[in-house]
């Protein structure tokens, strides 16, 4: 047989060889590599992924951003920990790298020990553990084959560790590795164009597989009216609720579509925006349309339109409350009945306060089961209403029903219950000989290897926050059998029953205000009703895009708190404020375009007059250790001085009681320049860049620094029983308590005297 290629001077053999490699997908710049040493794949015809800094279609996520609050600790002969990540529906992965920052024990045998990297239960790489690098902070880049990546993925890190060639203790202290949660995942992708179908909603505007913060622009055709702002608020709070822990920001523009990506567009005059064929078609009513962004073939626009503001608001409410029922590129809303007005404290994300709530309602049933001698904690997120009043009380009653596997011999097995990392109670898990159950117990264990138990306790609310976490940890005692006899059998089981209950129904709602900490964490008091039907937003006279973006981002924070869109919000101008005197007011101010700041100057702890800025100062900023005191009086600091200066003023948040009606609250979001309102919303979102927290009555934001200048708390909101209110009142006024005690003593003596006198008369008669 003649050879296929001949070594001619024209180099044809080289070209033929390259052509064959391309067709087979082996040439490294075009096809994919099948070798284990390279361990990378790409679609045929695509180039290999470049470094994260040189690829515009790429992004990075740390393990901390993926939900790992703590480093990954791997212990024992074999242990595994994992991180979950997802891929957006409008992306196809072309390359993935895991950048691991890790360290390991110096006592493990390098020839028998390794760390395996698995993706969706398939091995992507095995990292050797040479002894000369042990005990150091190491970095390793691991290539993940793109063919292993799906829409939702689990990255497992598995330690296989041995410290001797002879018999070994499987839980020896020398068997460990630590992977930092600063390790990151680098993802390269190619965008794909999705079809225009409303059935995809909320994709691509929000994709639950994307762990990055949501940035979703809003576009208004013209300077928006109050009704159009109310429609936008319902949508931003809806997407804020969807974004949840990711956080969300909503930049705004007027008459200008984004150059790239997705956006929400609100129009009543379609010809004012370049919307292609949609601009020439007259709207016949409230409608919702998904279309391709004219500036980006991979971006989508969600166009909310109507012939007037009322129809546009109807279309927006339909998206906020019922987008799951839409399909096709365009949906015309023929009829939409808004939902009934919400009642206080019924936000979907908050724990109910009118009945005991079952723990099985708060988490998936699979998360209530654990196994092994030292399993992961069972964690249940609790969003408690911010105004729960628990003065001199025992806390919230928790009826915990649990099951465990009794051991043959143990003395230290226990179930620990924590709230926000504070120990609440420790319950022993007795071994079989200590149960004294007799034949009945043995018969039970033959049918079911776990025993049901229950315990009652109270969760102390003085250590609780709005976003609290209930943690339950099973610790099983590992009884060593002796040399060469220790074998771990992971047959230990633990379970928290789903019908365990936490009861908040007996607690009052009563709290001191103003408290910007509650506003930052939960949007309180505005979110007391999930639909914000008792809230009015007072906008400045000039609506700059930066002001609109701040408004939408704050409403997105409210939606993240409640899990419900702000369908009952009312937007007004300053001259209409008397008509909403019975509502809580959120006031936006930029420069001198908010007249309410002058009208309410006496109540404000900060104000601006032209280039002059006035702030009330106290010594709270110098008493940091008192900010977190359980004593509410620790945060009371009277104004010590007034500071006045000229120039550009920093943005700030201020809270005070409404001058229009007692018991109602006002929060002012203000800045001398509209663009600097973004600093306020960024401080509300927070993050690692902010060491201080917004709290008190006045918070000034300056270059990532938050200064709380005053923390006066002159008024209270909520309701107490008359007897509890009297107790609280007397506890705050020593003279009143002494006077009441004296009057009570005199009254008691008078009653005793009259009683004895009456008895003497009866005896003498």
Automatic annotation (TrEMBL):
Where is the signal peptide, in residue numbers?
none
InterPro entries found in the cross-reference section: Cell_synth_B, Cell_synthase_bac
Give the domain of life: Bacteria
What protein name does the entry list?
Answer: Cyclic di-GMP-binding protein
Q: Which ranges does the record mark as transmembrane?
A: 734-756
What's this protein's function? Binds the cellulose synthase activator, bis-(3'-5') cyclic diguanylic acid (c-di-GMP).
> What GO cellular component entries does it have?
plasma membrane
| Organism annotation | Pseudomonas batumici
* Annotated localization: Cell inner membrane
Under the subunit heading, UniProt states: Tightly associated with the cellulose synthase catalytic subunit.
What keywords are annotated for this sequence in UniProt?
Answer: c-di-GMP, Cell inner membrane, Cell membrane, Cellulose biosynthesis, Membrane, Transmembrane, Transmembrane helix
């Amino acid at each position: 047989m003649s050879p296929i290629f001949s070594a001619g001077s024209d180099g044809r053999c080289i070209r033929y060889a390259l052509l064959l490699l391309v067709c087979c997908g082996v040439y490294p710049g075009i096809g994919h590599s099948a070798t284990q040493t390279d361990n990378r794949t790409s679609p045929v015809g695509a180039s290999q992924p470049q470094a994260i800094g040189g690829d515009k279609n790429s992004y990075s996520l740390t393990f901390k951003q993926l939900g790992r609050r703590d480093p990954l600790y791997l212990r024992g002969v074999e242990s595994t920990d994992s991180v979950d990540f997802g891929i957006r529906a409008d992306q196809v992965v072309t390359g993935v790298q895991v950048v691991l920052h890790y360290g390991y024990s110096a006592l493990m045998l390098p020839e028998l020990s390794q760390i395996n990297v698995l993706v969706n239960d398939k091995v992507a790489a095995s990292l050797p553990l040479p002894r000369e690098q042990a005990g150091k902070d190491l970095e390793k880049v691991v290539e993940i084959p793109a063919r292993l990546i799906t829409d939702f993925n689990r990255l497992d890190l598995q330690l296989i560790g041995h410290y001797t060639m002879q018999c070994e203790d499987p839980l020896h202290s020398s068997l460990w590795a630590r992977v930092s949660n600063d390790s990151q995942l680098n993802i390269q992708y190619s965008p794909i164009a999705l079809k225009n179908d409303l059935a995809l909603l909320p994709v691509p505007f929000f994709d639950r597989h994307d762990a990055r913060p949501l940035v979703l622009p809003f576009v208004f055709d013209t300077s928006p009216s109050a009704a159009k702002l109310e429609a936008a608020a319902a949508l931003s709070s809806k997407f804020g609720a969807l974004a949840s822990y990711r956080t969300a920001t909503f930049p705004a523009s007027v008459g200008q579509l984004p150059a790239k990506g997705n956006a929400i567009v609100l129009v009543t005059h379609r010809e004012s925006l370049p919307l292609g064929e949609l601009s020439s078609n007259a709207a016949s009513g409230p409608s919702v349309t998904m279309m391709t962004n004219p500036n980006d073939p991979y971006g989508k626009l969600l166009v909310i339109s109507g012939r007037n503001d009322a129809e546009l608001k109807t279309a927006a409410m339909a998206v906020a409350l019922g987008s799951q029922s839409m399909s096709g590129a365009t949906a015309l809303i023929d009829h939409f009945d808004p939902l009934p007005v919400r009642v206080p404290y019924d936000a979907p994300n908050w724990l109910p306060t009118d009945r005991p709530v079952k723990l099985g309602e708060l988490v998936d049933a699979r998360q209530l089961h654990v196994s092994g001698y030292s399993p992961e904690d069972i964690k249940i997120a609790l969003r408690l209403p911010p105004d729960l009043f628990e003065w001199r009380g025992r806390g919230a009653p928790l009826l915990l029903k649990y099951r465990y596997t009794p051991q043959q011999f143990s003395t230290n097995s226990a179930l620990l219950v924590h709230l926000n990392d504070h120990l609440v109670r420790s319950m022993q898990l007795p071994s079989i000989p200590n149960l004294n159950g007799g034949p009945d117990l043995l018969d039970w264990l033959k049918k079911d290897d776990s025993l049901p138990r229950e315990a009652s306790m109270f969760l102390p609310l003085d250590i609780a926050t709005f976003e609290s976490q209930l943690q339950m940890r099973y610790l099983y005692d590992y009884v060593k059998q002796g040399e060469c006899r220790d074998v771990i059998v992971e047959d230990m089981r633990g379970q928290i029953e789903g019908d365990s209950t936490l009861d908040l129904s007996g607690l009052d709602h009563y709290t001191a205000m103003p408290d910007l900490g509650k506003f930052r964490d939960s949007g309180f008091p505005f979110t007391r009703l999930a639909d914000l039907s008792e809230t009015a937003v007072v906008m400045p006279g000039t609506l700059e895009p930066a002001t609109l973006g701040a408004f939408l981002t704050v409403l997105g924070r409210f939606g993240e708190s409640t899990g419900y869109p702000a369908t009952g919000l009312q937007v007004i101008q300053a001259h209409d404020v008397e008509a909403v005197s019975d509502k809580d007011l959120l006031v936006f101010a930029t420069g001198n375009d908010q007249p309410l700041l002058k009208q309410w100057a006496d109540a404000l702890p900060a104000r601006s007059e032209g280039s002059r800025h006035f702030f009330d100062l106290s010594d709270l900023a110098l008493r940091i250790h008192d900010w977190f005191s359980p004593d509410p009086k620790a945060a009371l600091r009277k104004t010590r001085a007034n500071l006045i200066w000229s120039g550009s003023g920093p943005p700030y948040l201020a809270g005070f009681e409404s001058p229009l009606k007692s018991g109602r609250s006002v929060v002012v979001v203000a800045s001398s320049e509209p663009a600097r309102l973004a600093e306020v919303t960024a401080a509300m979102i927070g993050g690692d860049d902010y060491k201080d927290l917004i709290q008190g009555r006045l918070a000034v934001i300056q270059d990532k620094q938050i200064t709380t200048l005053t923390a006066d708390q002159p008024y209270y909101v909520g309701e107490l029983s008359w007897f509890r209110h009297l107790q609280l009142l007397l506890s705050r006024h020593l003279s009143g308590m002494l006077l009441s005690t004296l009057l009570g003593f005199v009254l008691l003596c008078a009653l005793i005297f009259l009683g004895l006198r009456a008895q003497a008369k009866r005896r003498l008669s």
